[in-house]
Please model this.
Amino acid sequence: MSHDAGDLVRSLRLAAAVAPLLLATGATAQGLTEQQQFARGIYQELVEINTTTATGDTQKAAEAMGARLRAAGFPEADVHVFSPAPHKGNLVARLHGSGARKPILLVAHIDVVPANREDWTVDPFKLTEQDGYFYGRGSSDDKYMASAFITNLIRYKKEGYKPDRDIIVALETDEEILDANALGMQWLIKNHRDLIDAEFALNEGGGVGLKNGKAIRNSVQTSEKVSVGYQLTVKDRGGHSSLPRKDNAIYRLAEGLVRLSKYDFPMNLNETTRIYFTKTAETESKENADDIRAILAPQPDPAALARLSDKPGYNAQLRTTCVATMLEGGHAINALPQLASAKVNCRILPGEPVDGVQAAIERVLADKQIEVTPTGKAVLSPPSPLNEEIMGSIEKLSKEFWPDAAIVPVMSTGATDGSYLRNAGIPTYGHSGLGADVDDNRNHGKDERVLVKSFYEGEEYLYRLVKMLAGGK
Ligand SMILES: [Zn+2]
Model:
């Protein structure tokens, strides 16, 4: 791939940024600095511990990271590994500052979603470096951040860095399950609030968007949609399949689902998504940019809205969404079904009433015999304010690393620990510094990967950003 002048300038700038490090530690055989090699080692250790929710072991991962910190000289009293259940582990570690300001909290989850060896082209629980990428389950979501925070905390310690606020790292076990009794962040907030209390937190949720290898935006996640599940159930007296009736539980449910599939919740922009679309229009193709401007107008253009709604990424920012995700029904091939049911997952815009969504589903299903019941409790959380200290630091540092990337506040369509932290009164910003192609999101999917270059760049970025935010010397 060819490099333009901008890339060259950026490379030189980065080279200048890491030069002192090279001088201090000397480059290794693979062209990595000692620091980078150390970072890679921690990353590899974490990726290669299987931490799948049901079958993996986050306790092992939390203990491994705890051991790393202790080996680097952190006292026992500042490294806590909690195991609220077998094979479930949370780690909370602290680097002490002068205490002039309230601590900063760095959060990452260490659990991952399942990955089958047969589905992948490489072993998901080995860190494979290939074609400029690191492959592995969790390589991006979220072990990049987990390893970066641990690596950088050790780096600060080695330097003798004294911030003017404590820096707390929390690695938690249960982000990937939508469970009100989860043993990760919710458990920490409930049982060890004092250990994680902070003025604000950095977490996953926003990264650096690359298009053709160039950084076009650097996202800061400030809010999240709310995930709510509904069960749709149709019951019937059933009977023998040799005597069918037109009225059939499976048909009823199916017809209702078809009506639901054609329904779009109304467009509803908030402060974050308005800025998001405005900034996105600056880097989009003319066609999309025109459509975006047409929906931002006081009288949004319905045709433009329809075109944007065809793009799942935009659609999810525009409105609350509900989609059927699971289906079951019947009990025998030769019996009329007594039961048919489906699960529908909704992602509700922050600020929209949850009750209204159920009412909308019932209205669209338009069939009293389809019973709608929520399957869990919605966790609403207020958006984190676009605080000048944080946004200003990000603007300034991001310019050095990715001069052409616009800083864009974003609303996540998926849920993270940010919602629990925000509810606990700790404003949380999803900001990873990890570059990834905007069209190549493999989180939770097959062959999850991270650009090697982005890995080292992002780690260095977080190292400096946290220093800016923590102050001191
Ligand atoms: Zn994640």
